[in-house]
Amino acid sequence: MALPPADGKQREVLALPVGGHTVVLGTAGGGKTLMAIKRAAFLAELCSKNERVLLVTFNKALVAYFKSISDNELKKVDVRNYHKFAIGYLNSRNLMGFNVIAPAYDRHRFTKTDLIKKALSELKSSDPSITTFQRDVNVFIEEINWIQKMGIRTLNEYEEVERVGRSGTRILRNNRKYFWAVLEHYMELRSKKGYKYDLEDLASYVEDELEQDTSNRYYKHIVIDEGQDFSPTMLRSLTKAIPSDGSIIFFGDVAQQIYGGRISWRNAGFKIKDIWYFEQNYRNTKEIAALGLAISKSKYFQGVADMVEPSSPKAEGVLPAVIKFTDEKKEILYHIERAKKEFATQTVGILVRSRKDVDNIVAFLRIARANYQVLHGDMNGFSLTSGISVGTYHSAKGLEFDTVILPYFTKEKLPDSERIIALEDEEEAMSEEVKLIYVAVTRARRGLIISYTGELTELLPTNENDLYQEFTI
Ligand SMILES: Nc1ncnc2c1ncn2[C@@H]1O[C@H](COP(=O)(O)OP(=O)(O)OP(=O)(O)O)[C@@H](O)[C@H]1O
């Protein structure tokens, strides 16, 4: 499959002089992935025999997708997710080992969550008078992840740092020392289990090592796609991974930031003169883009700095459908039947909020003997031809499908109740979750079907402006 040629501003970015730091912010479907691939290929052509280009993105499913769509353009480029880059670098410095990263999920080993739970419970019993320790463990997990992603190294630094958004008011400055105590105790327990890192603080170790590493850099140029979800410390480590005559280019869309709350690429220490903007939406039809735009203008979306508003795409299509069902089984069977018959020659994405719901849909797909792939972190290949892809909204990041089906769009599931607990604030959870549904909706090229039972989530804008057609089945 040949990639389309660059157009308008894309052409200007593709031809930018090579060197230094560049930031490109674009709307959903603005061609950031396309340009990341083309720029990486262009840079690889300029490299001498010992110089290399890294195209780095957030998740492994996206790496598999890049490789499938790039039509040989990436022959001379290393395509990796950040963690693979980090592990490779730490390995080259003899700082890795077997099972030294505390896993996020694992049925057989202690996870980061298990260890934070243990750390909190031990501190709670050692001093029951401290009320902060009585807060839900998810609040601590959330805060520890934030501290690590910011690359904060000391309690002093943590006590000084200014927070943006509502998270700033959630944790009083005076109480930060208790969160720090849980972090420190977690680190002790982690080390006792033989783990040196976890997925959030790995980047700080890479950054520190690169800071004092005077050897020649392995990559001359780094191209980052989906950069909005890289933590500041991941981005800083990448800026240190290139030589002084190398280059780094960041492609991202703040409206699609779905990991890490309100952490901004602006904390990454890029040295830039200008920011480039891709406003043109090349993916969605006018109707789908209009719904995406309405979501991005909703009250829950407020406070998103650097948001790039899309200009209306040219392709006309049909209005998205919003269908109400009487029960969930009927809902899923209806979608599977349509996907198998009506959309048989298309790519179809069935996307949901939780992994549990993915498993549920997979069980139905198996019974229906449908042709499907599950989107997940360990995908090696990616089928681009017709067929159904099932996954969470998170796993569909950066991808696109001819038709997107979004079942379970209910108040009960959106926002996710665990996020409300972790953030101790429904409004904050809504502001996170609305970005997820923005990502989900903007994955659709031509068809979008949303469905629910019971009550529709408030995250979907109301229909006064005829953004969608409503049905009951
Ligand atoms: N200049 C162009 N001409 C034709 N098609 C284009 C052009 N630029 C992008 N596209 C197409 O538009 C779609 C979206 O592009 P791409 O995935 O690169 O956008 P993106 O900015 O990475 O989107 P997102 O952030 O939503 O994942 C793709 O199918 C891509 O091939």
Sum this structure up briefly.
This protein has helices at 8-14, 32-46, 60-69, 82-92, 112-126, 137-150, 155-160, 167-170, 176-192, 202-212, 232-240, 286-296, 328-341, 355-367, 417-423, 426-441, and strands at 20-26, 53-57, 77-81, 101-102, 197-198, 221-224, 247-252, 275-278, 321-325, 347-352, 372-374, 387-392, 401-406, 444-453, 469-472. The protein is of the alpha/beta class and 473 residues long.
Features:
Rossmann fold, 473 residues, binds adenosine-5'-triphosphate, 15 strands, 3 domains, alpha/beta
Q: Can you tell me about this structure?
A:
By secondary structure, this protein is α/β, with parallel strands linked by helices. It has three domains: 9-94 and 200-278, P-loop containing nucleotide triphosphate hydrolases (Rossmann fold), CATH 3.40.50; 112-193, no CATH class; 286-472, P-loop containing nucleotide triphosphate hydrolases (Rossmann fold, 3-Layer(aba) Sandwich). The protein is built from 16 helices and 15 strands. Strands 11-12-10-13-14-9-15 form a seven-stranded parallel beta sheet, with helices on one face. Helix 4 (82-92) packs across helix 10 (202-212), helix 12 (286-296) packs antiparallel against helix 16 (426-441) and helix 15 (417-423) packs across helix 16 (426-441). Adenosine-5'-triphosphate (ATP) is lined by residues 4, 6-7, 10, 26, 28-34, 253, 256, 282-283, 398, 400, 442.
